[in-house]
Amino acid sequence: MWPKGNQLGSLIPMLHFKETGHEHFTKTIFVINRRCCWRVYSSLFLHSGARVSRPIWRTLAEAPKLVVDELIICTERDGELNLGDPWEQVPDMSWREMLTRYQPEGLDNLEAHWDLTESQLDDEAPWDWVVDFWCRADSPNARAYRLLNNLDLGPNFTEPDAIGELVFTDGPCPGNDYLGVAVEDEISASLLQQRLNDLNTGIKLVYG
Question: Cα 16 to the chain's mean position, in Å?
Answer without folding.
Answer: 27
